[in-house]
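Bug #77: duplicate submission created two jobs. Keeping one. Sequence:
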Amino acid sequence: MVLNYGERRGARDVALRPSVPAPWIDKNSPIPMYYQIMNQLREKISAGEYTVDDALPPERELVETYQVSRMTIRQAISELVNEGILVRRKGIGTFVAPPKLEQALNSLTSFTEDMAQRGMKAGSRIISFKEILPDPTIRKALGLSAEEKVFECVRLRLADEEPMALETTSLVASLCPGLRQEDLENQSLYKVLTERWNIQLDHATQSLEPILAPPYEALLLHVAPGTPLLFMHRVTYEQNGRAFEHVKSFYRGDRYKFVTELHRRAER
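Kept job's structure:
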């Protein structure tokens, strides 16, 4: 008889864990075998049999447990890695990933504020900072003339020293004259804008779409090229209705999920 991984951990450890059904798949089912295995592994994680930073059993052990090919096991694991439920650590193995950070879509807050609410230390690494003439798309979004410039800052946003997002921010230069790179290092941009130039945030328009990580962005975010990312585009307005900020951000899909509330309109 082949014992599953939970049974090998010892009676004391198993007794402390919730009861999870023994591994079993229906090879005659129209549901692909890798998908059945993927769901069983996901259930084990949800039930607490595998917890954050626990190593998944080696592939050969899972092959014995489920009596399937190694290719089937690899496909199941790859799907869970893509979902951000598992994470591969090169040369070590596959582990249960920490839960994703939830980001509300219906509130206008800074990255620094978001991390502080979660008890995490926010940080930034400045990739580039310069005053430039923006491209036509940004110029139109910010309502600028052909001669007006922006401060463009590319920042790698960190939470507890881990890369979370790559952000390119364009700020109308005439609204924050004298802005320096040092002003954006490891502090809230919105706080600086409010305290030094009295720019009061009012609202923003924002869009979100999934993309696959290009090589450069993947390198900075410490993920493999082709890893799912969330691409966010935002234009932020101050209280007088003027657009002052254009942002493009790449968020790690394995560490983030965005949530919002939906309300049904009352029928007239």
